[in-house]
Request: fold
Amino acid sequence: MVAVQLYIFGKPARRVADPLDEVLATAKRAGYENVQAWLDYFSSPESAKRLTAMLAKHNLAMPAAYTGGRMHVQADADKAIAGIIGKAKLGAKHGLKIVVVNPDPLKREKTDPELDVQAANLDRLGASLREIGLRLAIHQHSPEMRSGAREWYHILKNTDAKNVFFCLDLHWVLRGGQDPYKLLADAGRPKRVIDLHLRNSRDGVWCEELGDGDIDHRRVKRVLDEIGYEGMYTVELAHERKTTITRSLSENITRSRQYVRTVLGK
Reply:
């Protein structure tokens, strides 16, 4: 499945309101059949029903939804897990298959005891999601890449492969100073990667569209073929101050969809 993450649309995609209808229409016109957005859309039955109606109107699905959570402190994790499970149960009734979670980072590296608490809580969350037919995918940004991706590898090595999978954000791996091809292979050979977040940069600056650049997606494709990847491909554009914008967002997500088809074969 190929999806577009709605992050790039900004405020119009943050809540289930009329602007979201046009966002979904734009995604459909760009050639996507799936979108990825926020688990908070399933905060209430009313919100979930409205979202489902909008998705159906545009013949779209939302198989994965994103959220965060403070998992390295037990009391905070208990509250976060209860909230995630509550929303996920509602989401499961509306087509949700994967809950993408980025454990809240710190401005410093987490201690070994904090990482142990975090791993145990992610395992518990993954097991609870599995009981309702969903899968947990761990997302990361650059903080988890410190010290040779210490935090990320701790999760990989200290959680049950039946409960905890990964949504690997390849460019955040690169921006964190690590090798995206190696991390993809290390988590992919035991088939624990079930979603890829895709963007690219040129000379370290995020591009307006997904295309050739600092990450070699043809090399990514070779790794994916080697590990027998069967997961999602999620275009997640992000623009920063130095990003040069020459086209409309609609054009950029359309070109990004074409790039996934041409280079990654999906």
The chain is about 45% helix and 20% strand. Strands lie at 2-5, 34-38, 61-69, 98-103, 135-138, 164-169, 193-198, 201-202, 205-206, 232-235. The chain has one domain: 2-264. The mean pLDDT is 97.
